[in-house]
């Protein structure tokens, strides 16, 4: 389990980013971390992975204090950052020199992920395109079999076939031991992949719900024209029609439109959260 408990963090004096932040991530689930630019997503991921230290409060990863950065913890964490530099060496050399830090690294899995992403395994890293480099890092990260896999904007730079390969690979890589956290702006890329949505805004978690709870409570409609305003939780213009979120009164679980949901939460998190039992979210 990953736990942030009463975390305060600031980059600059007098400008707190996180104040008393609490978050629990359970193994066996894929979390989607969403938020506008500057909301604090990357900082949160760095606190979880021991790359930033809380000013007060605790960040614990599988029982380890994240700030202690013990090798036993670090070999169980892999973070694919949004921006990265890869050295001008071959894939084989990279794997030979880096995989040793991950006790559970599987060469077979690595080859299978590369094949799934249609990447040649003999390439020199500096000659790969941005999207290919990203796929290489995702394949490497998965092959480490780290229990905590953090992906910051993983689909950024991936072409359309690669995005569906990515979804397929991630879904198959999850097991009951692993926690996968995916931070993104490309909310549609997370559809049918994540189990829980966590939304950050100005350093606060303003929404934290499972997809199952969301599809049980909310319905996403694409023609709300004529529906009384009091029945609408959120609406926006889409192709000349009013699309939005209403209460799910059918009792059937429907598709969660991540973009409408995100927009609705950003517009009025209180209204969206009001559809869920109060103890199920934290603000
Ligand atoms: N090294 C730093 N020094 C000072 N302030 C920083 C630093 N890194 C981030 N910040 C500030 O912290 C806030 C959160 O930044 P962060 O990168 O965590 O946001 P984000 O949600 O990941 O944004 P984006 O979606 O644009 O990547 C921003 O206001 C940013 O300016």
From TrEMBL:
Gene Ontology terms for molecular function: ATP binding; ATP hydrolysis activity
Entry-linked Gene3D superfamilies: P-loop containing nucleotide triphosphate hydrolases (3.40.50.300)
Record has rRNA-binding as a keyword: no
The organism's place on the tree of life at top rank: Bacteria
CDD domains according to UniProt: ABC_DR_subfamily_A
Annotated keywords: ATP-binding, Nucleotide-binding, Transport
SUPFAM superfamilies (alphabetical): P-loop containing nucleoside triphosphate hydrolases
The UniProt record lists the keyword ATP-binding: yes
Record-linked SMART domains: AAA
Listed InterPro entries: AAA+_ATPase, ABC_transporter-like_ATP-bd, ABC_Transporter_VariousFunc, P-loop_NTPase
Domain ABC transporter: 2-227
Name this polypeptide is given: ABC transporter ATP-binding protein
Protein source organism: Pontibacter cellulosilyticus
């Amino acid at each position: 389990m990953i736990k942030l408990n009463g975390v305060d963090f600031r980059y600059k004096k007098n400008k707190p980013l996180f104040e008393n932040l609490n978050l629990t991530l359970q193994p066996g689930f894929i979390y989607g971390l969403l938020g506008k630019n500057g909301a604090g997503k990357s900082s949160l991921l760095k606190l979880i992975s021991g790359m930033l230290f809380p000013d007060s409060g605790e960040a614990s990863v599988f029982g380890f204090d994240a700030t202690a950065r013990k090798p036993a913890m670090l070999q169980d964490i892999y973070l694919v950052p949004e921006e990265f530099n890869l050295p001008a060496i071959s894939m084989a050399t990279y794997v030979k020199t880096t995989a040793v830090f991950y006790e559970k690294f599987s060469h077979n899995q690595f080859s299978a992920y590369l094949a799934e992403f249609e990447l040649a395994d003999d390439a020199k890293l500096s000659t790969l395109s941005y999207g290919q480099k990203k796929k290489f890092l995702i394949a490497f990260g998965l092959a480490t079999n780290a229990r905590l896999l953090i992906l910051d904007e993983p689909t950024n730079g991936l072409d359309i076939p690669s995005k569906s390969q990515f979804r397929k690979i991630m879904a198959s890589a999850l097991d009951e031991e692993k926690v996968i956290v995916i931070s993104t702006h490309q909310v549609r890329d997370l559809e049918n992949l994540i189990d829980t949505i966590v939304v950050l805004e100005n350093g606060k978690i303003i929404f934290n719900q499972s997809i199952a709870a969301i599809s049980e409570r909310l319905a996403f409609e694409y023609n709300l024209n004529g529906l009384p305003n009091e029945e609408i939780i959120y609406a926006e213009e889409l192709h000349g029609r009013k699309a939005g979120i209403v209460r799910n009164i059918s009792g059937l679980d429907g598709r969660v439109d991540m973009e409408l949901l995100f927009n609705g939460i950003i517009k009025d998190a209180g209204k969206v959260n009001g559809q869920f039992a109060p103890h199920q979210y934290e603000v």
